[in-house]
Amino acid sequence: MAIRGNKKRLGDMLIEEGLITEEQLLKALPIAREKGKKIGETLVDIGFTTDEAIMRALSNQLSIDIVDLSGVRISEEMTGLVNSNILRKNCMVPLGYFRGNFNIVQVAMADPMDMAAIDDFTIITNLQVEPVLALPNEIMMTLDRYFGDDENMEAAQKYADQRRAIEEASQDDEYNESVNNSPIVKIVNAMIEQAARQRASDIHIEALERHVRVRFRIDGALYEKFTYDIHLLPAIIARLKIIGGMDISEKRKPQDGRITYVVDHVEYDIRASILPTVYGEKCVMRLAQKKMLTKDKSELGFTPEEMKQFDNILKNPNGIILVTGPTGSGKSTTLYTALSELNKEDVNIITVEDPVEANIDGINQVQTNNKADLTFASALRSILRQDPDIIMIGEIRDTETAQIAVQASITGHLVVSTLHTNSSAATLTRLMDMGIESYLLADSMVGVIAQRLVRRLCPACKKEHEATENEKRLLGCDELSPVTIYEPCGCEQCGNTGYRGRIGVYEIMTITPKMRHVISNHGSTEEIKDTALSEGMHTLRMSSSAMVLKGVTSFSEMIKVSFDNDTADTM
After folding, report:
1. Backbone angles phi, psi at 505, to 5 degrees
2. Each residue's pLDDT tens digit, 188-246
3. What share of the chain is helix, strand, coil (3-state, %, to 5)?
4. From start to end of 511-563, where are the E strands?
5. Nearest to 181 by CA among 228, 243, 239
6. What separation in angstroms does the CA of 494 have from each of 489, 500, 501, 535?
7. What average pLDDT does this structure show over 534-549?
8. How crowded is residue 253: how many other Cβ atoms within 10 Å of its Cβ?
9. Range 540-559 average pLDDT
């Protein structure tokens, strides 16, 4: 192959392509030697370049094609050629015979100059390798897809065999043995890595009567991924307690822990919650990429009109801005985005959160601690003596916190927070029910954003169909005119779910003088909503209907996020 004759090193190629400097290469080389990593991986870890840039540089320098593995199907013959452990170690995956030649296999590699990896493959299969380039995380995702279940079952079987060997040991000895057992470590690591690569937000490990069920929440829906023998549960939970900093001897009380885990150069902050159930302890892990919480506002899914409203609300020097919606509707992301937008050198921003979900440079963040009597309310009192311009409250949970927030906003501070309500209008009546005087609320409130997340239809497989009369009525369309909408189908690229990713749907209520008048007169939820609509507000139903008509999401997703009594009557 031409690559064997190429004496140029990766570092030299990257310098030649202008991706890194010689100084950066000299800095990375000793780090790579010390950690036993390849130079390309080290350069990405340090932040000097990216996997995508390295791949393009190699393609230019070596004249090797780049492949997208997201929709590739691999035959059983290919997956049976080499053990998955060797493929993972060398970050490579066989795709098929090259141009019908049964002596040459096309292999996707992150590093096509890794001659040791190519030699391993050739010696095992007695076949020649024709390398193509693919991103490391795409290769690992493909290996997860084709080998993940088998690898987990193999690890589970190893653990079961070892467990039988120590069956007669005392319970504590068995527990300690299970914690340090390498197959269990492998199972837990694989579970977290596969969840991260499949964009899961949560991992559910559930104790059923005869087995352990593992489910991933992907784009808001739960999918069963693995099942294990119930005897593996104590070992899995013990391992999670160890890495999460929890007490492994405590099995009767709920516990919370925190895990930091790196998958494909991305750092995940994982919050683990363990709860005793009838058949054993259940664990839920919430995965969050720290960098994902601080998005650019253009990535939130606002329409141009909504973006204008959002910007106008943020321009207020004082008052209260509330973001509302159920758990998992993206409120924290919207709040952090707003703070990043407001974060300037001449502004003092202080937050009080439970917990602090992402660290932002230039912002003073306070973590509540009930044991030290540092609650939202007590922290807010102290914050007001810290000369803040902007205060972010993680959540308004009680009357005391709400009253302090209102007082802070009236005295010249901008307060941003979240509340669990179903709509923008209901947020205002909820605060009145909590004991906030209507005239104070009217004076302090500047904007309310109610939001939900809808699943995006997979662009590769979404299928169009003619909307029925009922669908047209609920979408607010003319029932006599034909309307084309799309529905989920399912393919390799979306994991056969029909959806890929999520996007925000918003109901933005700007508090106008007319709105202030209605609020100060103790207006009901309906009166506030009608006034807001007359002032140009789009409800969640209207916003999600627009997404359906654009082909971004499905009719069923619209119903899910905007279900109300009117819907129920017409369904």
Report:
1. -120, 130
2. 998 999 999 888 999 999 999 889 999 999 888 899 988 888 888 999 999 999 999 99
3. 45, 25, 30
4. none
5. 239
6. 10, 6, 9, 40
7. 92
8. 9
9. 92
